[in-house]
Design a protein that fits this description.
Largest sheet: 3 strands, antiparallel
Strand order of the largest sheet: 1-2-5
Distance between the termini: 38 Å
Helix content: 40-55%
Oligomer: single chain
CATH topology of the largest domain: HU Protein, Chain A
Number of strands: 5
Shape: elongated
Number of domains: 2
Radius of gyration: 22 Å
C-alpha cells in the first residue's frame, strides 16, 4: 500500500471525519452533476422555434464533425464563450499497474486539451 493510500485510509477512518448518509451523498451529487446530452442540446435549440428537431440535430452533428476533423489534422479550435480546444502530445512514461505493482510502459499518445474562456470562468 502506498503512503498516499494509507494516509487516505487513515483520514477516512478518523472520527473527526464527517459522515454523510448514502441518500444525502447521492442527492447532492445528482444536483451538482447533471449532464446535458445531445438530446438536451437539440431540445434547447428547438425551443426558440426557428428550427425543427431534425435540423437542429443535423447542425449539431455537423458542428461536432467539423471540430473533430480539425483536431485530427492538428488544428486548434476556438469556440467563443466556451474555450479553445487543442491536441497535445503526451510523452511515453513508466506507470504502475494497480494491484500487482508491476511497472508498465505507457506509450506516447495524444490528448485533447481545453483552455476555458475567461468569460465562462468568470460566470461559473
Amino acid at each position: 500500500m502506498t503512503k498516499a493510500r494509507r494516509k487516505a485510509k487513515n483520514a477516512a477512518s478518523s472520527p473527526a471525519m464527517k459522515r454523510v448518509q448514502p441518500e444525502q451523498a447521492s442527492q447532492s451529487a445528482a444536483e451538482t452533476a447533471e449532464k446535458v446530452g445531445k438530446t438536451g442540446i437539440v431540445d434547447r435549440m428547438v425551443e426558440g422555434g426557428a428550427v425543427t428537431r431534425s435540423q437542429a440535430a443535423s447542425v449539431l452533428d455537423a458542428a461536432v464533425e467539423v471540430i473533430v476533423n480539425a483536431l485530427r489534422t492538428g488544428k486548434t479550435v476556438g469556440l467563443p464563450g466556451l474555450g479553445t480546444l487543442s491536441v497535445k502530445a503526451t510523452a511515453a512514461r513508466i506507470g504502475v499497474r494497480p494491484g500487482t505493482s508491476d511497472r508498465i510502459e505507457i506509450p506516447a499518445g495524444k490528448k485533447v486539451s481545453i483552455k476555458v474562456a475567461a468569460d465562462l470562468k468568470k460566470n461559473l
